[in-house]
Amino acid sequence: MAKCGACGPGYASPLDAMKGPREELLYLPCIYRNTGIQKPDYLATVDVDPKSPHYCQVIHRLPMPNLQDELHHSGWNTCSSCFGDCRKSRNLLILPALISSRIYVVDVGTDPRAPRLHKVVEPTELFGKGNAANPHTSHCLGSGDILISCLGDPAGNGKGSFILLDGETFEVKGNWEKGEKVPSLGYDFWYQPRHNVLLSTEWGVPKALRDGFDPADVEKGLYGRHINVWDWSTHRLLQALDLGKGSVPLEIRFLHEPAAGEGFVGCALSGAVQRFHRTQKGDWAAEKVIEVPSKKVQGWLLPDMPGLITDILISLDDRFLYFSNWLHGDVRQYDISDPRRPRLVGQVFLGGSIARGGPVTVLEDKELQCQPEPFVIQGKKVPGGPQMLQLSLDGKRLYVTNSLYSGWDKQFYPDLLQEGSVMLQIDVDTERGGLAVNPNFLVDFGQEPDGPALAHEMRYPGGDCTSDIWL
């Protein structure tokens, strides 16, 4: 756990967090929905301590009590937003289920190496008290409550609302948002009280994306295009920044410095990273600062293949930005010392749909001279493409998993469902920039006791680069 004496959870500042202890354990949900294996999803605990005899091994599995949940993202009961409150302890992992709409509360404090189930919030609570469903991102608040964004309503329609959980009892308190204006879609969010703002993004209509991706649904307006700007104090929607049809803005990250009025959002289908910022007038605007060009291809769903930027994160010192191109197969590192002009300083290919020898032929590529080689580590040819990212506190190790969401894995990377996903580690050059795969690190979820599993988002017991918000 985070070592900060009796001062409460987390760290006083992002730079203090960078000096925290090296991660030794890592938690990540493993999914069986859509794989044909009739077993519940589970939370895996992985030993990532190189000095341990169990290095790179799953040392514990906590199965959920239900089938077909689709565990996805997770958060904490409390984090650095409550730093200084000695009554608080970061000891419970909040684990929303994207499809079943349950919320699991997992005790990781009693025995960090063997988590146990603390409470289940049933979907009827979300349906009845908030007319909300498909919970996604969970952030703890300085007030002690827990805020969770949702994708839709109980009928499977899109609805960008939020659920508030009591941080002690985990009872659903109702909706966070106020007023009549609610976005038609929801997904991720980040808040920054110093600027009195919460920003949220949009994926798609749950019943449209539930079992796969149909490009026609983009034209029908069933996928997102906005960053939604909320007043933090009144909980009312103020603005919708239109990033264009087919942009699909997913993960959104403010710079970690709490006074900074800017950050970045990764747009999946447009292959763009947009920088959002507060203007001199006091409202918010966005500008495209990175673009991954689509590749003209044969043997794929469409004639143009986007990179599909599916995860994005920022180092705690706000120097580097990382994102994954799930379809093209690469992870990139950008120097964002000048946030308006990111500079590519690291890139590594970890699979993807354009690897040489596969079914896809690249006809025109504005970036590469030839198709990349298939990614092989410790004799294993890795299926799928890089997806979820998590960075060590000191910024020197980037962890990667390669399952996006079971319905889309099944469509785009069917081999992933047969072989299971992996977790990899990339060594980061924090001086000049640069990425290199650690050849000694491989967690193969194809070897799980109940069959190949799909591993998704990663968390450390002491907090990380995407769950902590400083006030």
UniProtKB/TrEMBL annotation:
Pfam family for this entry, one: SBP56
Source superkingdom: Eukaryota
GO molecular function: methanethiol oxidase activity; selenium binding
Membrane topology summary: Peripheral membrane protein
Keywords: Acetylation, Cytoplasm, Membrane, Nucleus, Oxidoreductase, Protein transport, Selenium, Transport
Localisation: Nucleus; Cytoplasm, Cytosol; Membrane
Top enzyme category: oxidoreductase
Transmembrane segments: none
Primary site of residence: nucleus
InterPro entries: Se-bd (IPR008826), WD40/YVTN_repeat-like_dom_sf (IPR015943)
Function: Catalyzes the oxidation of methanethiol, an organosulfur compound known to be produced in substantial amounts by gut bacteria. Selenium-binding protein which may be involved in the sensing of reactive xenobiotics in the cytoplasm. May be involved in intra-Golgi protein transport.
PANTHER family, A to Z: METHANETHIOL OXIDASE
Protein name (record): Methanethiol oxidase
Organism annotation: Pipra filicauda (Wire-tailed manakin)
Taxonomic lineage from the root: Eukaryota, Metazoa, Chordata, Craniata, Vertebrata
Name of encoding gene: LOC113987265
